[in-house]
Each structure stands twice: as C-alpha cells, then as structure tokens.
Structure prediction request, 81 residues.
Amino acid sequence: MKILYFGRIQDVFGRVEMIPLSHPDQTVGELLDELRTRSLATREALSRPFRVALNQTILIEESVVLRDEDEVALIPPVTGG
Prediction:
C-alpha cells in the first residue's frame, strides 16, 4: 500500500511511504491508529484535523477495508490566499 502525506503531516512523516498491510482486513481507521503509535510527533500530527483520500477519493468512513494496491493520502486543511 502506498501512503502519501501532505502539508504539516508531510513534515512529520515524509513525502511518501510504502507499507504492507498489518492484516488482510485492515481498515483505514486501523491504519491511522497504527500510524499514531509511531511517535509523539506522529500522534500529534494526526490529532489535528485532516482528510483521508483512498485512491484519489475523499473518504468519510474509516471502516473501509484496505487492499495492498490502494493509495492512501493524508491531507490537512489548506490555508492561504
């Protein structure tokens, strides 16, 4: 699975990461929980508002089951003018 990070989240995780699924029925919510446990910085980065896109579609439900070929993007709110 490919994970893309943007904005302030990218500052903590880096730009892109390839990781295997933890188990065959891993959900988006479980993936986020796993990422939060890596360090204090990752927990803080994912405690603020952000959106999750799965295969370039914004998700509302974290109960979606992931597949090895999926692309997950973590996108914080965009500000500026």
